[in-house]
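Sharing in case it's useful to others searching the archive later.

Someone asked me privately for the predicted structure of LysR family transcriptional regulator, so I'm posting the question and my answer publicly. Question first, with the sequence:
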Amino acid sequence: MEPKPFLRLDEIHCFLAVSEHESFRRAAETLGTRQSSVSRAVLRLEDRLGVSLLERRSTGTKLTNAGRQFLSEVRPALAQLGQAQRAAMGAGRGDTGTVRVGLHSPPISKFVQTTVSMFLERHPEVRIDICDGSREEHIAAVRSHRLDIAFIPGTGLVQGCESAELWQERVYVALPGKHDLARRRRLDWPDIITEHFIVSRFSTGPEVRDCILRRTATYAIHPNIELKEACGETLMALVCLGQGITVVQASWAAVRFPGLVLRPLKAPQDILPYMAVWSAKNDNPALRRLVSLARALAR
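And my answer, the predicted structure tokens:
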């Protein structure tokens, strides 16, 4: 099998100019070069293809059957090539592409919502894919590049990743509206330590359980914690039904849930830092732009 001819764009552009103007002279004037250069370029293209593309006449040029077929195929091919070039350049600048974002748990915090909304306004061709998960799941996904970035609770170094503390949120107690403590504006752990806590068995549930155990460790009473096969709004519905109370991040305060009351825990230890985590080896330029914006908004 003979090797396929290697086509050059400069020769193709010369052919397109000649086919449009039906003249080597006018094509050369349009391209800003010599007529002889255009003629030689078209001849080289014909040699590569092994066919004649033009009929040379004293009055000008005319496409051959092969020339017409080549022209009909090469124009959309060049348009597609131009689109590919623009797409690659846009992706290299971070103007296009996808950023895969991991969130600790719904609802989305105000800081993340503001950051993502502003980023999409500035880069409308970039797609943001968001998924929920636990801190450990997200860190593992960032390390393996299944996620570009994760917004998770905590601070400090994360092995194999870059990180930046960005915002803080107070811990709230989720109560049914008919609960006696719902009349209080703020609460502390001694107020709730004898309550029946319910937490999710999935996603961030184990972290919530660890938080309750850590904050009640100094008291003589061991908290009563029940794991539920539910998370998010379903868990809040169970709270409303009186099956127990739980603790949530401040973002839940922006969610209107019938029968649910949220009260902040007043101790300074109940303000949690949140950070972004990403891989230093991730070369996604759109990710870098998102990180820069998040850092700027956190100042």
